[in-house]
Each structure stands twice: as structure tokens, then as C-alpha cells.
């Protein structure tokens, strides 16, 4: 059985943007503010450093078993840390291979950057992937190689097709509190944020603001 | 039980240096020339590319079960490919953690760059590591960050201490056919070569030359 996974407000960590705060401190504050899932990402860290970072983040949210901790790319690190899952991009290990290594009880997220990527993802055996990261909504300085943004209309269409195929979706790339409501309105199941939380002097308050923006006005 | 492992002439691949030849072709030729073990290394490849590369190398030497294929750094790739082992450096996942993931039936190599590194390696639980890579003998353009060379006397001393602790040793860094005999004379169990094979227009002949240089004159 997969871990609980509410993708509403999905924090992807960035070690540089968190400075001078330790990533684990930012995660703890952000979860207190309303973050529902965490992905540990550090493309500059060695695997040794990433393992230590993942364990620090897990310890920081150990009292919140409802908040899964997922590792970006590094399946070996996720296995050693006993993480709740892995998120892979189109250049990382193929999702089917990752599923073989992780077994049935972990989450797998997959980045999708186009309708072609989505078609491939929907052709995977059922249960391979849990959530698709529609990426990037807008161009973003935290991942310049991701290219120009999909825009809201493309995100809406990708989410519709993904949902028809039974997969959850999150949108990522350039999302801040001012834009969160517009992204939520596309029908995605959640938003991923990086700098909107990591670079904020008050990550808890930033998460609270983002979470409020995700909630329909009538429900607040 | 660990796979057979004769470290006498240990080829570490370099995709760039092999060009225009595919790495797998170079490996096949080098094994025909006398290479006894292969490590797939490509620090520029994505994990997806490294998995494909590892499988291509395994296929190229499938008729030589006596020649193990080991993956540099990427434990997840080694697991998926069913490789014979993993080689880790001081920045990669700690050897004890790698042993947990790989189980008892795979080889683990560990790079050792100083007497301090060696002392740590010798303090690991017995059976954690199979072979130590004494690195670098000489400064090498294929790994500039490895720093200045240990020199032959330091290699001799590190090998002596490692053997007293029951571990195999290979020397790596700047070794070519002209220097192979001097390195063998330090008492190491084998030599690692990269450019001396990968950059040679005739990898089979290069391996034959290196293998001959490793053999004491009276035994030729």
C-alpha cells in the first residue's frame, strides 16, 4: 500500500535558496504552515550529502506521518533512507525500472513536459506512477534548463488527460502565492513550490499564504 | 558468495576517451586483450544513460563470466542491471550503506586517497569492502580533482597496510604500459587503467601490452 499522499501543497527543497537556514528547519516550518508533501531535491549534492539531507528532513517531520518525504532522482538514497517515494524526470531512471526497485509500497512521481511525455506516462503499466509533475508552468530560475513555460491552458489540458487516465497531477514552475489560485483553477490536484517557500524569510507564513490561495474563497 | 574477481588488469571506462568507438566495443576488445575486470564510469551520464551503458557493457562481455562488471557510484543502476558490484569514492554513498543495499553477493570497491582514508576503510565491519582503489598514483587528466599523486612509495605502504587488514588493492591514476611494471612491483593486486586503453587506437593491443607488463619477466 502506498503512503498517504495529499499533493495540495507540495514543497520541493532547494538547499541554496534555504540558506542561511538548514533545509530541515525550512521544511518543518513549511509543514507547520500547511505544506502537505515534501520532495528533497539537491542536484549539486553528492549522494552521500543527499542521504544525510533526506534523513534530516525525515527527522524534521517525523511527527507528521501524513506528510510524505520523497527523494528527487536518487533511488538508492530513497531506499537507504526508507523514503516514501521518488520523483524522476525524463532524464532520470525510467519509471518502470524505478518501480521494480522500490516495490509497490512507495510513491513514484514523474515529470511531464509535453503532451508526448504524457502519452508515454499514460502507456505505463497501471500502478507504475502515482503523480505527474506538469512542468514548468512558467519559466523558472530554479530550473533554467526546463525551458519556456507550458502556460495555464496547456496545464489545464494535460491535467484533464492525466485525470482521464487515472493519475494525479501537480503543477510546478514559477508558482507563487499571487499565481497559486490561477494554477489551482486549472484542475490540477496540487501545486509544487520551491522559491516561494525556500526563499521566503518566513517559510511558515509563506506556506500558510499559499495554502489559503489554494482554497476556494467560499471554503475559507 | 561474491562474483569471481581477478583485479590484475582493471579497466575503468571513459565514454569521451573511447570516442568514436562505443564503450562496449572498447571493453570487448580490451577483455580479449587481457583485461580481467571492468568498471563502468561516466560522471557526465544521466542515470538513465548509465543504465543503458552498463547493460551494453554487460552484453559485450556476456561470454566472459570470469570478468566482473562493476558500476561506479550508482548503486541504483547496479541493482537494476544486476551488476557484479559497485565502486564508490569518498564522496559517494558510504560503503556500509552500499553493502546494505547490495547484500552479500556483490563486490564493493572503495577509493582510498590517504592513510586516513585507509584507516577508516580498515575499521569497517569485515566483508563490507572487497578492494581498495589506491588513488591517484600520479596526477591524471581523467580525474583532475583527484589532486597530486601519491607516488610509488606511498602506494607500496598503503598496499602493505591494506593487505595486513585482509583487503585487495588496486592502484589507479596515470598508469600506462611504461609505468605498469613499476606499479605492479609495489605489491598491489592489480592496476586500473583508463586512458591507456580507452584512448588507444587499438584497445586490444593496449590491454595485451599492459598485461604483459604486469607479468614478471621470468614468467613470460
From TrEMBL, chains A, B:
Pathway assigned in UniProt: Cofactor biosynthesis; thiamine diphosphate biosynthesis; thiamine phosphate from 4-amino-2-methyl-5-diphosphomethylpyrimidine and 4-methyl-5-(2-phosphoethyl)-thiazole: step 1/1
Keywords: Magnesium, Metal-binding, Thiamine biosynthesis, Transferase
Binding-site positions, Mg(2+): 73, 92
Pfam families for the chain: TMP-TENI
Annotated binding of 4-amino-2-methyl-5-(diphosphooxymethyl)pyrimidine, by residue: 39-43, 72, 111, 143
A GO CC annotation given for this chain: cytoplasm
Catalysed reactions, semicolon-separated: 2-(2-carboxy-4-methylthiazol-5-yl)ethyl phosphate + 4-amino-2-methyl-5-(diphosphooxymethyl)pyrimidine + 2 H(+) = thiamine phosphate + CO2 + diphosphate; 2-[(2R,5Z)-2-carboxy-4-methylthiazol-5(2H)-ylidene]ethyl phosphate + 4-amino-2-methyl-5-(diphosphooxymethyl)pyrimidine + 2 H(+) = thiamine phosphate + CO2 + diphosphate; 4-methyl-5-(2-phosphooxyethyl)-thiazole + 4-amino-2-methyl-5-(diphosphooxymethyl)pyrimidine + H(+) = thiamine phosphate + diphosphate
EC number from the UniProt entry: 2.5.1.3
Claim: Metal-binding is one of the keywords in the record: yes
InterPro entries per record: Aldolase_TIM, ThiamineP_synth_sf, ThiamineP_synth_TenI, TMP_synthase
Residues that, per the record, bind 2-[(2R,5Z)-2-carboxy-4-methylthiazol-5(2H)-ylidene]ethyl phosphate: 140-142, 174, 194-195
Superkingdom in the source lineage: Bacteria
Family to which the UniProt record says this protein belongs: Belongs to the thiamine-phosphate synthase family.
Family matches, as NCBIfam families: thiE
Descriptive protein name: Thiamine-phosphate synthase
Lineage, opening ranks: Bacteria, Bacillati, Actinomycetota, Actinomycetes, Geodermatophilales
Amino acid at each position: 500500500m502506498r503512503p498517504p499522499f495529499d499533493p495540495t501543497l507540495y514543497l520541493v527543497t532547494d538547499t541554496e535558496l534555504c540558506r542561511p537556514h538548514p533545509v530541515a528547519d525550512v521544511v518543518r516550518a513549511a509543514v507547520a504552515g500547511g505544506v502537505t508533501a515534501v520532495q528533497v531535491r539537491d542536484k549539486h549534492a553528492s549522494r552521500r550529502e543527499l542521504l544525510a539531507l533526506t534523513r534530516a528532513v525525515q527527522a524534521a517531520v517525523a511527527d507528521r506521518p501524513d506528510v510524505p518525504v520523497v527523494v528527487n532522482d536518487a533511488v538508492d538514497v530513497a531506499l537507504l533512507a526508507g523514503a516514501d517515494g521518488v520523483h524522476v524526470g525524463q532524464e532520470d531512471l525510467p519509471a518502470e525500472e524505478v518501480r521494480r526497485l522500490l516495490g509497490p509500497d512507495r510513491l513514484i512521481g514523474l515529470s511531464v513536459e509535453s503532451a508526448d511525455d504524457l502519452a508515454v506516462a499514460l502507456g505505463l503499466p497501471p500502478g507504475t506512477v502515482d503523480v505527474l509533475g506538469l512542468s514548468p508552468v512558467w519559466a523558472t530560475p530554479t530550473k533554467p534548463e526546463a525551458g519556456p513555460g507550458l502556460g495555464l491552458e496547456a496545464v489545464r489540458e494535460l491535467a484533464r488527460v492525466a485525470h482521464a487516465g487515472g493519475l494525479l497531477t501537480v503543477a510546478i514552475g514559477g508558482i507563487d502565492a499571487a499565481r497559486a489560485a490561477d494554477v489551482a483553477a486549472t484542475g490540477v490536484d496540487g501545486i509544487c513550490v520551491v522559491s516561494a517557500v525556500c526563499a521566503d524569510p518566513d517559510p511558515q507564513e509563506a506556506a500558510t499564504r499559499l495554502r489559503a490561495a489554494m482554497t476556494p474563497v467560499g471554503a475559507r
